[in-house]
Amino acid sequence: MLIKAIEVEGFRDLESFEARDLDAVVRIAGPSPATTALGDALDLFFAAMGRSALLRMLHRWRVPSPGEEPDIVGAHLPEQVTWSGSSVAARAIVRSAQQRDLKITLELAPDPPQFGVLRDLAAKEPRILLAIARGGNLRVSVGALFTNTFDGLALTVHAFAVGDEAFPLSSGRPEWLTTFLRGLGTRWHRHERIENLEAALLDAALSADRHGAYVRWQQELEPQYGLVRVARGTGERPMILAGDLPLRRFGDDALRIAELAASIHLSGAELVWVEDGDPWSERCVEGDGSALEQVFRVFPTGALAVAPKTQQRRTVGVRSVRKKS
Q: Is the Cβ–Cβ distance between 114 and 123 less than 8 Å?
């Protein structure tokens, strides 16, 4: 799956933004407040598809108190989440106390298995079958509204379309669509530091469910560093080895890349946001069987300038941004 277009409205640092014709590698100029807001918007879109993604987003935004578990309401998709006390971090997301609503619309190009899943789920919905047969991307809109006391957030999937065929959701969301949207929630990952990298890798190595991800992490690093593995060292403390010696012998860059590779592979996602100046992450979308379908890479000389539409200008070589007349 690829994100082919993004529309954002309502963020303090990115009031209104569009990007189109996105490719497998999206090179974004940054970091900056506007760039961070774009990452937050993508976080919010996928957070509306699942509880785990929503919790990760809220803690990344520093909205709940440390150690607090927000209360999420919603039988299938999150509909509302609350936390204790008014959040300064939440206030900083939106334009003002009077303008607390956010909207994100993505155009998604599903892969063939996803279209197959959608076709099977909606087997009793003739319009879906006709729309899939005609081709075209998916268009999904998510809305969010903070409470006026900034101690809660409501989430809604406003619209869903396949190609030119729209499916109004004002009278309720069909079960097949809920199931399909839940599947989207696991496809997005925003890379951040792994506090206990060695322990996380050891846990994956010893886990029946996650061992495959650990092996893929090893394979990703092998061309540069040989056989890389995690093992218990002095005092049973886990450490990362290249061969039989510490990986840190290769320098901080080796440890940083090992962490980024672990973040990508252990997440199980196929769309990843990376704020890292090294182009290593772009390798992850190359070739058959690649780890990722799409990487959003933020670095100072990235081609896509993120700014509100009123500030956007056409730039030679940047097809992804257009100015709305």
A: no
